[in-house]
Amino acid sequence: MFILSFTRILRFAFQSFLRNIWLSLVTVTIIVLTVFSLTTLILINVVTEQAVTAVKDRVDISLYFEAGAKEEQVTLIRNQIEKMSHVVAVNYVSADSALELFKQTHSGDELIQEALKEIETNPLGPVLTVKADDLKNYPIILKSIQDFKIDEITKEIDYDDHQLIIERIESVSAKIKQIGLILSIVFALISLLVVLNTIRMGIYVHRDEISIMKLVGASNWFIRGPFLVESVMYALLGCLVFWILFFIGLNFLAPSVHSFFADIKFNLVDYLLHNFFYIFGFELLAIIFLNLISTLIAMGKHLRV
Amino acid sequence: MIHFKNVTKVYPPNTHALRDVDFHVAPGEFVSIVGQSGTGKTTLIKVLIAEERPTKGRIIVGGWDITNIPARHVPILRRQIGVVFQDYKLLPRKTVEENVAFALQVAGEPMEKINKIVPQVLKIVGLEEKHERFPDQLSGGEQQRVSIARALSHRPKILVADEPTGNLDAINTREIIDLLMKINELGTTILLVSHNREVVNALKKRVVTIDNGQIVADQERGKYIL
Ligand SMILES: Nc1ncnc2c1ncn2[C@@H]1O[C@H](COP(=O)(O)OP(=O)(O)OP(=O)(O)O)[C@@H](O)[C@H]1O
Ligand SMILES: [Mg+2]
């Protein structure tokens, strides 16, 4: 009985959709735009988070030792640093590997390669890099290291918290988010009105059927059901159409998107594939919620028995 | 079967469509309701099928007090009262068969039951041959018979007809009235609203006359007296 009624309601809803096909298409289009702005908002949030994490990952304290620093001395200091609280890792790079690394990164630079040959001896010393468990603990660790009084054997103790970059990223993203939010609200309002209008039109077109339904004792939900189903259909179609278009577009743009995010080691496509159902589900539910509200408003007292 | 107890209906601001209407219809009766235009006959039907609520008084249908019937029970009431109007109210894009089936579908009846009932009621109204026609391929009398078939599809105990012959010529009118008589003989209580003097007089059944919202006459084997 329930299943039977439901398939009938589904069929009525589908007929209603087809009967006003142009209006239905406009409705779906505006929902696609709403999903677009919602998605933009979500992706901006994700990208910002990734970018900030990437920058935070790069934060560390580097101790550059003098070229002649003894390995035992460095190991001793390393052991002491490792014992400090909040330190999660201390990485040791020997003078030789430091040189290798330097050569590699400047392999294209003739001048540097020439200069290195000229010197013959290794101008670089060993390096210790210190990672803390949290960004806010670096200053404490730095202070403790400076208390070692190892100026004599270190060229430089380098610490940069990248505060400036993080602030820049966050402020730019906050601005984009604001625009995205306003856009989403505007589109949500427009789609609310468009869906409301479409459903009202549907009720108007079906007024004879509705009055006959009432007359012959159709239940309230049989009269309202098709319009509710229709509005859910718009939501589903809008979300599907948007994501199909999105993935088609992404296919073309994938290389440039990839290089754009390469800097922060973020793979947008991977991220989307992994989280697609969460994002899609969230958007679908949000749009369904919006559409049901406008449908309930549109039906108002028209469809009461 | 139908009990109106001092029913008054006032349309805001102050149109008194029914005033203190009090009458009783026994099961299986055939009652004609007559009266001039605007005297409240249609309003009487509307309060009976809960399309309007009475301002005062009580209405009882088959022992069920429907005076303040909640919305969710209204469909149940309407399946027990078949209604027919002057303008047939058929869906033009559905065939005869589909128009009748529609009433059963939207009440959630199963397919097997629909397939069984539709030919039965079409047979009662004599349209079993024309079941695949569309309303505009039928005469007015035939269209009205489709709407009667639809009204019968829920096997109602009561059939209400509001000027069912208002748009029909004498021959078609005769046919519809004969059909109503036949349905009445099968046990259905009938309430017929009519303007047609000959029809009411020929019936030789009970006649309730309404004037200005009040019952002014109620006669067994009555005549159209206005
Ligand atoms: N929805 C409404 N709102 C306000 N007044 C109404 C409404 N429906 C009917 N009326 C008024 O109530 C009175 C009775 O109307 P009703 O339709 O019951 O008359 P009727 O006897 O069926 O007339 P007719 O024979 O012309 O069909 C009329 O004065 C009419 O104008
Ligand atoms: Mg009337």
Description:
The complex is a heterodimer of chains A (305) and B (226). Chain A is α+β, with helices and mostly antiparallel strands and 305 residues long. Chain A folds into 2 domains: 2-55 and 165-302, no CATH class; 60-160, 2-Layer Sandwich (Alpha-Beta Plaits), CATH 3.30.70. Chain A is 74% helix and 8% strand. Chain A has 10 helices and 4 strands. Chain A has a 4-stranded antiparallel sheet. The model of chain A has no long low-confidence stretch (mean pLDDT 83). Chain B is an alpha/beta fold. The two termini of chain B are 27 Å apart. Magnesium ion binds at residues 41-42, 162 of chain B.
Labels describing this entry:
heterodimer; A: 305 residues; alpha+beta; Alpha-Beta Plaits; 4-stranded antiparallel sheet; 10 helices; 8% strand; elongated; B: 226 residues; alpha/beta; Rossmann fold; 6-stranded mixed sheet; 10 strands; binds adenosine-5'-triphosphate; binds magnesium ion
Protein topology:
The complex is a heterodimer of chains A (305) and B (226).
Chain A: H1 2-19, H2 21-58, E1 61-65, H3 71-83, E2 87-93, H4 95-105, H5 110-119, E3 127-132, H6 138-146, E4 154-159, H7 163-205, H8 207-215, H9 220-262, H10 268-299
Antiparallel strand pairs in A: 1-3, 1-4, 2-3
Chain B: E1 2-11, E2 15-25, E3 30-34, H1 41-48, E4 56-61, E5 64-65, H2 74-80, E6 81-85, H3 96-105, H4 111-124, H5 140-152, E7 158-162, H6 170-185, E8 189-193, H7 197-203, E9 206-211, E10 214-219
Parallel strand pairs in B: 3-8, 3-9, 6-7, 7-8
Antiparallel strand pairs in B: 1-2, 1-4, 4-5, 9-10
Bound molecules: adenosine-5'-triphosphate and magnesium ion (MG).
